[in-house]
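Hi R.,

Here's the chain you asked about this morning:
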Amino acid sequence: MQLRYNYRVYPDADQRHALAHAFGCARVVFNDGLRARQQARESGLPYVSDAELSKRVITAAKKTPGRAWLGDVSAVVLQQALADLNTAYRNFFASLSGKRKSRKIASPRFRSRKDNRQAIRFTKNARFAVTAGGKLRLPKIGDVPVRWSRDLPSEPSSVTVVKDAAGRYFASFVVETTDEPLSEVADEVGIDLGLTHFAVTSDGKKIDNPRFLRRAAKKLRKAQKALSRKEKGSANRKKARMKVARAHAKVTDTRRNWAHRLSTRIIRDNQAVYVEDLAVSGLGRTKLAKSVHDAGWSQFVAMLEYKAARYGRTFAKIDRWFPSSKLCSACETIATSMPLNVRSWICRCGAAHDRDVNAAINVLAEGRRIVAAGRKPAAETPREAETLNARGGDVRPPLAVADADEGGTHRSAACRGVEGIPGLQAGEDVNCRADALRYTYRSAPSGTPRSSGTR
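And the predicted structure, written out as tokens:
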């Protein structure tokens, strides 16, 4: 498995200047390549290939007075900038064609020198190295001091130098890990994520929500007010902006460190881990958006997933429409409704439930069923989603064809106007499918009113 190992680096003044120049050169090459392809498309010309684009915006550009300074940085940095552009276009085309099943991706956009994050990448062709003294040697930049928090497990294949919004520099190494699976344990756990408690496990443990952003709100508000009072373009405003960025970076780092510790402990203590597939993007548009983003569910679940694969544990996501909160874990009866203000409830069978603990128990049971069936946890078809929700039971009555003399019901809006179809003969059936519901319309003999089919 390939992983990234991040370390803080401390370049001196000359090295920071060289890195800024490299950031600018990579940004210019990316924008020139994007502009060339956009102009070709507007002119009706064929798509500019990767090789032709490299010759035009790097090789030929270095020979022009306006781009001669591109030769001051490593050629690998420029090639990797074009590689990022090519990857962005491939993802965009795959999204348009439907090959990419995730959320739709927009076309590549121009990079700005005002972006909070700047990055360049060096591959093995650039001949970067870690010196005997523990410094990172980068071509045309120099030996940069690194704070090594841990050893690299293997020789890195590439390194990305990143400058974040707080002005900090990081080196991100891509390495191949050879971690062996952990010793097997008997425990399995289902996890219900929430806001009152960050996580509730199927064994009844409740993990408090740390609310890092809420705890730092007073300090952030003070720093933001100081920033708003500074004159735009002034040196004091730049200092105030860095102070705000550092405060936000501290919150982000603290949340990430906490999630790493919790996810590592859960993976170490359990052989199988099951969680719900939450729609965080949808919840982020509600009135709970700030609390949802502060919780960092997606980051935590991603850590659980890759650590489970790394250490030989079982991991599965439960479908987001699975009624974990409304389902009684004792008799498997689904309650008609379960408002958010209901934190405990009693089933008709007499079982008393804590809402979150009951949900975690149901997540564990559903995860075991999915793994035992050898089926993907996410429903791939509407029918499969209904099967997951109803525990395999039929949720719709079978379809039937209406008789000619049967009284009709209201027709679907998508099927209106069927009576006006030219050439419709008496006794013919016209089937219309709308929203997965079938309606059959049978024309009556001439001289009598037509009757519509039933749902």
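Residues 235-269 form the longest helix (35 residues).

Let me know if you need anything else.
M.
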